[in-house]
Amino acid sequence: MLTRLATRPATLADQPIYWQSCGPFHADSHLKMPQKPRSTRATAPRLGKALKRSFFDRSVHEVAPDLIGATFLVGGAGGIITEVEAYHHTDPAAHSYRGPTPRNQVMFGPPGFSYVYRSYGIHWCVNFVCEEAGSASAVLIRALEPTHGLAAMRRRRGLEDARALCSGPGKLCEALGITIAHSELPLDRAPIALHARTEAPEIITGVRIGITKAVDLPWRYGLKGSKFLSKRF
């Protein structure tokens, strides 16, 4: 005679052994499970409105300090402008001082274009042309705080330290991939993008660096307290 087997345990005590070994279930058990770690990736700061070429149709001494805190990107890589120098056509240290040449011709054109030149035959340097056509004045971009495209900038520079990526005009051009091919380009079209600062910075001034003429002019502007400068003020 066959004996009929029970199809389910009658009580919790009759439950299979694996249930008892796991312990009773609590409503907050999900809180004790391993949680997915939060991302530690830094968030890029909010970008201000896009700057147009008309922004540069002013005195170079107005544009230069207004660029501190703005964001400069080339192909999506770049950061916050922390240091610049102004060069006026009446300034003996300006490339345009002795008139137009094939190299500096863009400085004599309309404002809002890039002027890229080779420094000491080694490093590229990027400038933003200012003032009306014929004035031949420009702002040299000396340093950035990297905020966008850090992986690409680190690869180009061959180093990890963010503070060293763009701490000089030649360094920032290498980090952003700027070459002579980027000269005479409009500053409000791809691959270049410029965004206004989102808050008013505290600006410091000092004499310019690496020149032998008009060395006493306080036409160097920087973001006070920044760790991303080419040289302390």
TrEMBL record:
<keyword id="KW-0378">Hydrolase</keyword>
<dbReference type="InterPro" id="IPR036995">
    <property type="entry name" value="MPG_sf"/>
</dbReference>
<dbReference type="InterPro" id="IPR011034">
    <property type="entry name" value="Formyl_transferase-like_C_sf"/>
</dbReference>
<dbReference type="Pfam" id="PF02245">
    <property type="entry name" value="Pur_DNA_glyco"/>
</dbReference>
<protein>
    <recommendedName>
        <fullName>Putative 3-methyladenine DNA glycosylase</fullName>
        <ecNumber>3.2.2.-</ecNumber>
    </recommendedName>
</protein>
<keyword id="KW-0227">DNA damage</keyword>
<comment type="similarity">
    <text>Belongs to the DNA glycosylase MPG family.</text>
</comment>
<dbReference type="GO" id="GO:0003905">
    <property type="term" value="F:alkylbase DNA N-glycosylase activity"/>
</dbReference>
<dbReference type="InterPro" id="IPR003180">
    <property type="entry name" value="MPG"/>
</dbReference>
<keyword id="KW-0326">Glycosidase</keyword>
<keyword id="KW-0234">DNA repair</keyword>
